[in-house]
Amino acid sequence: MVEEQRGELTVYQGPMFSDKTSKLIQLYLELTEGVPEEEINAHCFKWAGDNRYVDEHEDPNKLVAHNGATAPAILFEDKENPKQLLKLVPKGMAHALIDEAMFLSNEIIEVVEALLAQGINVTIAGLDKTAEGEPFGPMPELVKKADEVYNLKASICDKHGRQCPNGGATRSYRKAPMKTTQTVGGKDAYGACCVQSWGELHVPLEE
Q1: CA-CA distance, 100 to 81, in Å (whole number)?
Q2: How far apart are CA 165 and CA 74, in angstroms?
Q3: Of 33, 56, 100, 113, which is the active-site residue?
Q4: Are 16 and 154 in contact (CB under 8 A)?
Q5: 151: number of CA atoms within 13 Å, CB side?
């Protein structure tokens, strides 16, 4: 009996506005270009609680990047129980693209292992750090297991613009008080900046 070839794990990580979701959407479009709908074997997944931009799109079953790019997505309801994702896997899937993995419980690591063992290639996107600069959810463990990791930067530092002298925008910061690091938000709630500017721009969590 021939052993099934293991899939490969790729991780895109970085701060807010570093085009992580855009990378997933671009990959999806590349994998499905010219493929008849019934033969598509690449699928995007996201936690349903990430409802940013839903008002702007009639169909909530989409990945939506900050730049407006979209791709169809399969939603799962409970971020604490990402194993439900395994029940949603379409027959014949060869590529699983999972967005905003930092919101998910550590069970996502078992989910990824199960998919890889089935020969499915998995691509993950997520914030590497919280707005406080701490490791975010399961991302460090996913990075350890990854075959390839892309560390992204936001193209614009909110303090210094595109020509940031401090190595670019590698940190997320919070623009207003919030109660939890897991608050979902877009440009109204978060920004990206260099490490040196973070202390000046960042608003701490509510006590």
Answers
A1: 15
A2: 40
A3: 100
A4: yes
A5: 9
> Where are the extended beta strands (E) located within 87-147?
95-98, 121-127
Instruction: Determine whether 4 is an active site residue.
Output: no
Task: Give the integer Cα–Cα distance in Å for 95 and 58.
Answer: 26
Percent of the chain with pLDDT over 90: 82
Q: How far apart are CA 207 and CA 115, in angstroms?
A: 40
Which residues in the chain land under pLDDT 50? 1
Please classify residue 37 by burial: count the beta carbons closer than 10 Å to its beta carbon, then call 0-12 exposed, 13-18 middle and 19+ buried: exposed
| The predicted structure's pLDDT at residue 74 | 96
* Three-class secondary structure assignment of the chain: CCCCCCCCEEEEEECCCCCHHHHHHHHHHHHHCCCCHHHCCEEEEEECCCCCCHHHCCCCCEEECCCCCEEEEEEECCCCCHHHHHHHCCCCCCEEEECCHHHCCCHHHHHHHHHHHCCCEEEEEEECECCCCCECCCHHHHHHHCCEEEECCECCECCCECCCCCCCECEEEECCCCCCCCCCCCCCCEEEECHHHHHHHCCCCCC
pLDDT of residue 84: 94
pLDDT tens-digit series, residues 172-204: 999 999 988 888 888 889 999 999 999 999 999
Domains for the chain: give ranges and CATH numbers.
9-152 (3.40.50.300)
Strand-pair partners of 9:
122
